[in-house]
Amino acid sequence: MTQAFTIKIRKIGTSAGVLLPKQQLEDAEVGVGDEIEVAILPHKKDFSGFGMAKNFTPFKRDKTTREFS
Length: 69
What we know:
The chain has a two-stranded antiparallel sheet. It has a domain at 1-31. 10% of the residues lie in helices and 9% in strands. The termini are far apart. By secondary structure, the chain is largely without helices or strands. The chain contains 1 helix and 2 strands. The protein is elongated.
């Protein structure tokens, strides 16, 4: 079964590698020495919605007939 999860790339000597959790290996039924296919999907923080209310003016009460305590 295919599962997606986030994992950190670690420095190993002059190279880089990833450590797979034991439970993930067991779930995928793979072990040391087995070959697997890996797809790299860079993690990018999505700030596309950040600042959407750029031209928004804050709400101001235009009636002062009510008092709130």
